[in-house]
Amino acid sequence: MPILANFYKYHKLPLLLIILSSLFYAFFAYNLARTDSTILLLLYLGLFLFASQIIRTTGFYFRLLVIAAVLFRLLFLVAIPNLSQDFYRFIWDGQMIMAGLNPYLVTPDFQMEMTVTEGFYNQLELYKGMGPLSASHFTNYPPINQFCFVIANLLPGKSILSSVIGLRLIIIAADIGTLYFGKKLLERLKLPSNRIFWYLLNPFIVIELTGNLHFEGVMIFFLVWSLYLLHCGKWKWAAVTLACSISVKLIPLMFLPLFFWWFRRPIVMNGTVDKYEQSKAEFQTALEHSQGVNEERRFPVFSGMTKLISFYGIIGIIVLLLFLPFFSMAFINNYTKTVGLWFGNFEFNASVYYILRDIGFAITGFNEIAILAKILPVMSLIIILGLSFFRKNNTIPKLATSMLFAFACYLFLSTTVHPWYLATLIFLCMFTNYKFPLVWSVAIVLSYLAYSNAYNSENLWVIGLEYFIVFSVFIWEILKLKSKAEKKPAFKGPA
Fold first, then answer.
1. Whole-angstrom Cα distance, residue 354 to residue 464?
2. Per residue in 48-65, pLDDT tens?
């Protein structure tokens, strides 16, 4: 009892905030409709206020923050998602595989035209729930994602709710894994370990991943595991886990060029690291790696290329093996066509694209999405290649910063930016000095105001407000950190 009394005495405020947050999350999970825009905004902003205060007032009482993170997720356990209907397609794909069918080869529309499949539970409800847009297209979810859908459907009950619980338990388990490896990686980098809670206790992450059942959380788990293994020097296993991340969501594919400088060994000469800025913690590693670099001194451009190619090779082989059970020529055609649709056919919550689209309207009188959808991805690719070859991503913070900028620029130039896409940015910013993804995770709720009307049409003034906030913070942080970097003396190694 004295222990509990002392605990309550010193943690009254965070405990109160956790209780209030739990009430808000419960209301969000079981009583909110996405058309109730005013209530949605109030709950969302209130949860962000509570989360920031919980982290700040709890300090380094790690166990309490972990309990809060798990509690908030468990509150959603038996709730049907109310802000997204994608989970119907997840369950559908899992049921397809369990019925012995390849989900990449037929659309739900075609399947329903053929027949109601025996042993395919809740087929009619799932078909109606996913909506006509999803039902008319082939699935674009990679194989490990599909495996998760199957696992979720194995839970007893054979109902949509039992499958939802299965999906949710997988995502919660992934978040716990992200906590484990994220904390260990932050500690190895000599960064505050409680940074991870700006991801785990972020209401956006709780609602979009656990609440709305988006599998970015599973992708991020494999990604942080990969970065941790890479930092430990276990690059082969890092390649395996990165391949698993790609096989949940394709997003990490765009990060592959950024590893170009990682395997270039630091060349030590006269007690300093030539051409590399190394932190004090990494200097000893540089000295250890300097053994046997005579050949690399003669051909420095090619140092580490064998490991880099092997790293990419392992990733490619693992991804191909995971796709192999579904492979056919029809699969290749269907999958590439479906992925391409997201670049050239859909529009939602865009920024640069909407500006260019309006300019196109003014000049030609038509929506030039067909042209812009070809130009904007090329611009994203050029930015990623620039970050890959002209920025030496030879430490985890540098690599994470380049990943952050690469994906942020990709989203800025995209035609479609669904809220849950931001999860990767929020995770990456934990290992950098940039916090604009946290601001964006608050502002992104404005995109849900599109569902407040019968036509689900966007108010471009609202979207403009969202991106005005995001770009203002983004530019301010770049200028601020650039100014600090210019004033900070470079580390030249121990005397």
1. 10
2. 999 999 998 886 688 999
Say how many Å lie between the first and final Cα of the chain, rounded: 55
> How many other C-beta atoms can be found within 10 angstroms of the C-beta atom of residue 52?
17
- Residues 439-470, buried b or exposed e (16+ Cβ, 10 A)? ebbbbbbbbbbbbbeeeeebeeeebeebbebb
Residues 54 and 14 sit within 8 Å (Cβ to Cβ)? yes
- The alpha carbon of residue 465 and the mean position of all alpha carbons in its chain are separated, in whole angstroms, by 23
* Angstrom distance (rounded) from CA 472 to CA 37: 25
In which residue are the tokens 């087929």 written? 123
Instruction: Give 232's contacts (C-beta < 8 A, 6+ positions apart).
Output: 188
The dihedral over CA atoms of 151, 154, 159, 163, expressed in degrees to the nearest 10, equals: -20
Work out the pLDDT band at 273, boundaries 50, 70, 90. Answer: very low
pTM: 0.90
DSSP-assigned states of every residue in 419-475? GGGGHHHHHHHTTSS--HHHHHHHHGGGGGGGGGSTT----HHHHHHHHHHHHHHHH
Closest CA to 209 of 310, 378, 69: 69
Contact 425, 440 (CB under 8 A): yes
Q: Which residues contact 49 (CB under 8 A, 6 or more apart)?
A: none
Helical packing angle, 37-58 and 12-31, nearest 10°: 150
**Cβ atoms of 425 and 204 closer than 8 Å:** no
State the DSSP code for 351. S
DSSP state of 80: P
The CA–CA distances, whole Å, from 289 to 267, 284, 312 equal 8, 9, 22
Query: What DSSP letter does each residue of 235-289 carry, written as one string?
Result: HHHHHHHHHHHHTT-SGGGGGGGGGTTTTS--EEETTEEET----HHHHHHHHHH
Q: What are the Cα distances from residue 158, in Å, to 96, 146, 164, 214?
A: 14, 18, 11, 21
d(CA 415, CA 286): 43
Return the percentage of the chain with pLDDT > 70, whole number: 86
DSSP character at residue 489: P
Q: Write the pLDDT tens digit of every residue in 311-363.
A: 999 999 999 999 999 988 888 888 887 877 766 678 899 999 999 999 988 88
How many Å apart are CA 86 and CA 465, to the nearest integer? 27
| Distance in angstroms (rounded) separating the CA atoms of residues 196 and 193 | 6
In this prediction, residue 5 carries a pLDDT of: 58
